[in-house]
Specification:
alpha/beta; five-stranded parallel sheet
Length: 229
């Protein structure tokens, strides 16, 4: 992989971010991804709660990656949850125009440094319509747009969206609660009301979905499979 150390820079949202005690027990995928990486692979997690491709750039977070990333590194680009918030003009992007255009800016940042961009589709929410069946969710257009961007720009893609939907369907509604910040009031009487969160992850979910990304990288082969155990 060239050199003693290879770095993964992660541009993403709250599903990936590294949490501290103020958001415990919320856990991001990037927070636990080193469980799956080989020795000499360093995860530099720039993911931040609530960010979209637009707001991440507007706040200078992509600029920070631009200053640090180098040849042979990797840029994991994982957005969608907040790009779809049409009520918020500071975050919203249109899937088949501004979202795709923004993704290409991230890709260009990696490539101008001879780093390797990887697109990762957003993980699915717990959008169950009954105990066994998932609804359509809100990511569909953004997933399709990301896949189009990957094809157009010849960028490898890990389809976490499809893999996470598969895991949710297998588990069903009750058994999937343990992966997310969804707290059963009978078990967590002291947890604040209104915290039945079907988007953000607990440790078990972060480890599960990090493993799916590792599986996706392994399937890509070459320098991508070399990142993971």
């Amino acid at each position: 992989m060239g050199g003693a150390e290879t770095r993964i820079f992660w541009a993403a949202d709250s599903t990936v971010q590294t949490n501290d005690i103020t958001t415990y027990p919320q856990t991001g995928i990037g927070q636990v991804f080193s469980l799956y990486t080989k020795d000499g692979v360093i995860v530099s997690n720039h993911a931040k709660n609530g960010r979209s491709t637009k707001s991440f750039m507007d706040e200078g977070r992509l600029d920070a990656i631009d200053r640090q990333i180098g040849e042979g590194d990797f840029l994991f680009i994982q957005f969608g949850h907040n790009d779809e918030k049409s009520e918020d003009p500071t975050r919203y992007t249109e899937p088949y125009s501004t979202f795709m255009e923004n993704l290409e800016i991230y890709i260009d940042v990696a490539r101008k440094h001879q780093a390797n961009p990887v697109l990762i589709t957003p993980l699915e929410r717990r959008c169950f319509v009954d105990a066994r069946h998932l609804g359509i969710g809100a990511h569909s257009d953004y997933v399709a747009a990301m896949k189009q961007t990957a094809e157009k720009n010849q960028v490898p893609l890990v389809d976490l969206y499809s893999m996470s939907r598969c895991e949710l369907k297998k588990a069903g509604e009750p058994d999937s609660r343990k992966w997310y910040m969804y707290f059963d009031a009978n078990l967590y009487q002291n947890y604040p009301e209104g915290k039945q969160d079907n988007t953000h992850l607990r440790y078990e979910g972060a480890v599960l979905y990090a493993g799916l990304i590792a599986k996706g990288l392994h399937a890509l082969g070459g320098i991508y499979s070399d990142l993971v155990k």
